Amino acid sequence: MRVALFITCVNDTLFPGTGRAVVTLLRRLGCDVEFPRAQTCCGQMHVNTGYPEEGRRLARHFVDVFAEYDAVVAPSGSCAAMVREQYPRLARTPAAAGAPAGEGPPPGSFAAEVAETVPKVYELSEFLVDVLGVTDVGAYFPHRVTYHPTCHSLRGLHLEDRPTRLLEQVRGLELVPLPGADECCGFGGTFALKNPAISAAMCADKVHNVTTTGAEVLCAADNSCLMHIGGTLVRQRAGVRIMHLAEILAATESGDDRTVRG
Amino acid sequence: MNGDATFLGMPAFPANAAVAVRDSQLRYNLRKATHTIRGKRAAAVGELPDWAELRRAGKEIKDHTLRNLERYLVRMEEAVTAAGGHVHWAADAAEANRIVADLVKATGETSVVKVKSMATQEIGLNEALELEGITAYETDLAELIVQLGDDRPSHILVPAIHRNRAEIREIFRERMADWGRAAPEDLTDDPRALAEAARLHLRERFLSTRVAISGANFMIADTGTLVVLESEGNGRMCLTLPETLISVVGIEKLLPSWQDLEVFLQLLPRSSTGERMNPYTSTWTGAVEGQEFHLVLLDNGRTNVLADEIGRQALRCIRCSACLNVCPVYERAGGHAYGSVYPGPIGAILTPQLRGTASKLDASLPYASTLCGACFDACPVAIDIPEVLVHLRGKVRHARVERLGMRAAGWVFNRPARLARAQRLGGRLRRFVPGRLPGPLSAWTDTRDIPDIPPESFRDWWDRTDGGVQ
Ligand code: SF4
């Protein structure tokens, strides 16, 4: 099975440690992951801000880069949801939209290529639990952790308890429930810039809920939301650090996750 | 164009919302009210094992009706006429207001009682009637509070959700006498006392007014029947006591048959008030002996919405307000920020479609959401509100600086080599990035720190170490 890592532009640029953690983790589980150098961005920011043409170009590029792989792993709930939910819509031509239900897209069309590639794209916890069939990844992380499910992982991908099942198997880790976990943190991509007052008000409540858990670490499967909540935690000197799910799952007692910490 | 004068000229959503989030009383009222009703809805929906099937049935019935709207509208008109009612067609707000004003004038009356109705608020009927010398009296308790307080509704189901008991007592004490029977001198803020004051005030009105105006939750094409669901019984009074009844109903409210209604009588109360069944369901067909009935079928932009393949799903809406009650943005911004009688997630997709996006406010509405998807999950007719929001964002005019930024980002993302060069540049300049960013980016650093920019991107690490092997 040829497995590709879709690192996502945010992780590639701002959170390379998350990418190194995914590589470490998957290798430890016997999965040799490739990194197709031509990849860039899934187009989520463009599409969700109202620039579908640019988004379609990036979707086209994504499909060209990843079509040849058997599985594509993305350590980001919102990017995986972008591909799964929005690519079929972006690829739908007006003619295809009017076609009777049940008929697939015409062969050779972009819509057909999207239909081929999209089911092979997995968010990290889906890949671990559903494809590799593991929940105990051999990790050791002796800290008090709370988990924020993030909207696109929760309501878009329906990850359900996959991430927490993985966390529960981590030795030494104390998982504490987050009150109001299913409520949005207020990031919403460019929403954070276009509606900063509401975004900050939502994050204030999220941060309050995080600190009441007494956790040292706030974990999520999406660094975009974590960047927003984490930026607020740092500004408030709250003393809670953020970690991507992959970084916790990559950690071991022997410390062979050195690459993660860089 | 919409004749809703009270909302015109409002600034864009972000500015309205920025004011609202500072109002601690409003925040408290909204949080308390939305969380209470959210819990009730979750319980009422959760106890039905076949909720998913009901929801799918609701969606499919609405879609079928909308696809065959012309046929069902004609059937509705024939059935109402056969039952002794009169049907009028209104293309826009002005025409609907004209029709209603003329009908009221023909009775010789100068006042009307009103059943809570979104359609008549959408067209600004009360204001239009006032210009013709006709006073419209709201009889729904919450609408009464809004009317007495010279206020605007901020929620579909609970228009005065932004008010608390103490504020309502003040409004009753100060304003009730101007509109009819005064509130008792010793009025307290006990809910029962407030309801009693409203009851006595309204009772006089019901018994002395001869024309009523309503909307409808549903219209049944087969028999020409209109249906109103309510909690207080004031609607039942308006629908039965007066001699003339005028109902203004959006054309999308149609259902083919009574069998279809059965599905919605389950979906609506559970989604809306979190009750298994609402206290009053009134149905009427045409006119009874001694009474006159007029149905005004309202388009006002709906056929344009119907023409939009993705946007048209908004017409499935049954105005339950479940999406408002679960929306984290609505909970903090309040309904007034949306500048329309339709607030919250449904307003963010309906208003820009009905009114267009020419004004700054209307163009900002599709962005009044984080796309968190809570509304879609709660919607009893499965309107994919995030999908429509994204679709509408693609149609509004963007600011120049944003267009340039997005084009530049697209240019970088189009070639991996460009992305790598941009990352290296960022890595080199990382120490010079200020803690507070300038321009539009200051919106980020006003309340949040920016993450440390790493010296090396993931792709450069991969190249340097051959994927961590070296
Ligand atoms: S959009 Fe759905 S949830 Fe919102 S008011 Fe309409 S029917 Fe209810």
Helix coverage percent of chain A: 40-55%
Number of H- or I-type helical stretches of chain B: 23
Oligomer: heterodimer
Radius of gyration over C-alpha positions of chain B, nearest whole angstrom:
26 Å
- Average pLDDT confidence of chain A is 93
| Integer count of domains of chain B | 3
Structural class of chain A: alpha/beta
CATH architectural category of the largest domain in chain A? 3-Layer(aba) Sandwich
Which strand order does the major sheet of chain B show?
1-10-7-4-2-3
Task: Return the CATH topology of the largest domain in chain A.
Answer: Rossmann fold
- Tell me about the largest β-sheet of chain B: 6 strands, parallel
**Structural class determined from secondary elements of chain B:** alpha/beta
CATH class division of the largest domain in chain B: Alpha Beta
What sequence of helices (H) and strands (E) makes up the elements of chain A? EHHEHHEHHHEHEHHEHHEHEHH
Write a brief caption for the model.
The complex is a heterodimer of chains A (262) and B (470). Chain A has 15 helices and 8 strands.
Could you please describe the fold and organization of this structure?
The complex is a heterodimer of chains A (262) and B (470). Chain A is of the alpha/beta class and 262 residues long. Chain A has 2 domains: 2-131, 3-Layer(aba) Sandwich (Rossmann fold), CATH 3.40.50; 144-250, Rossmann fold, CATH 3.40.50. Chain A is built from 15 helices and 8 strands. In chain A, 56% of the residues are buried. The model of chain A has no long low-confidence stretch (mean pLDDT 93). Chain B has 23 helices and 10 strands. In chain B, the strands form 2 sheets. A 6-stranded parallel β-sheet of chain B has the order 1-10-7-4-2-3, with helices on both faces. In chain B, a hairpin with a 4-residue loop joins strand 5 and strand 6. The radius of gyration of chain B is 26 Å and the shape is globular. The chains are: A alpha/beta (262), B alpha/beta (470). The complex binds iron/sulfur cluster. Iron/sulfur cluster (SF4) is lined by residues 271, 317-323, 346, 378-381, 383 of chain B. Residues 271, 317-323, 346, 378-381, 383 of chain B line the site of iron/sulfur cluster (SF4).
